[in-house]
């Protein structure tokens, strides 16, 4: 890896323990929904929506932040707390403003040098640190954890003011109600009076004052009045929030919250997930089959049916559902990964060979999915290619920020794979970065 990720190395060394304790939530439907929400705001901000990604961190606290020029991280707790698509879009608009105004570039320009799986692991380690407690790693690479956090992540009040004003402009240009950004700030009102240990991380990285809230109300009033209802955005918000909540919250709680008379798409999906998690496969399939019949061209619903079948051990049915999901949503590597996983579950030589092909196609599109990389290692091991199995394992550990484990498997892969092959070169990349991160 080039010297361009030197800052990443420091951050990765400092916060790898926090990264291991946390994780990203990778779900094709939720990520698709967030792409639908971010697209109009990105266009209004002058970004290409295809170059931005919104990733969800599995953390119940409330936060959202950016640490490079193309990735916005949102905590699951914040997504579950917000009440509307426009509130989510307000959060995204504010974070895009930090990118557009150069707040990230000035402090963390070298982040853009991370290209390999190991580099992404370092990026994720730095990002996930904001969800955990980096105290144990204080002083390893960049001084005390609190001073490092202030240096690399905490925005100044001036930066927050400029991001607020720019974010409001983006919302207005996109035909969205800027008042939604005020609503988001109201959620955090009064938190600055709390001790740092009781504050949500959003307040620690995005200073909130009465002056800022008063100014935001003024911005919203000045730019408001042009908003238009957007049923499509609300639909995808409800699906994303509903799916996230159904998988993360107690299934009995989910079922109690849904009125028996509610037959909306979101309600059917949430019931299906809740019954599946109880587990009650028959009831889960009843709900998801009703939804699939209503939306026969929706690959994300077919993917969920495939997941329910796979985890209910109906492997043949899962393969059929995932195969159809891939046909309906051919550009979704996470759905391809699920298809490969269902083929592996058949535990046949033909199924494993087909799985390897599908999983390699998915990896080429998204090399940062740990579960995909684990399945890829299983497929290679079953087919007797231990070198590639070790490489996939090394890359999985690198993505998760487990650099010592990544180094062990990368060294093994480098010794087993032909010298100069693409696999051997990938192993060397992981090994180089993992060693640097653990020195």
Automatic annotation (TrEMBL):
Cofactor annotation: Zn(2+)
TPR repeat intervals: 299-332
Single Gene Ontology BP annotation: proteolysis involved in protein catabolic process
Gene Ontology terms: cellular component: membrane
Residue ranges of domain Peptidase M48 in the record: 32-218
Cofactor info, note text: Binds 1 zinc ion per subunit.
Keywords, sorted A to Z: Hydrolase, Metal-binding, Metalloprotease, Protease, Signal, TPR repeat, Zinc
Gene3D superfamilies cross-referenced by the UniProt entry: Metalloproteases ('zincins'), catalytic domain, Tetratricopeptide repeat domain
Family indicated by similarity: Belongs to the peptidase M48 family.
Protein name: Putative Zn-dependent protease
Organism: Actibacterium naphthalenivorans
Lineage of the species this protein comes from: Bacteria, Pseudomonadati, Pseudomonadota, Alphaproteobacteria, Rhodobacterales
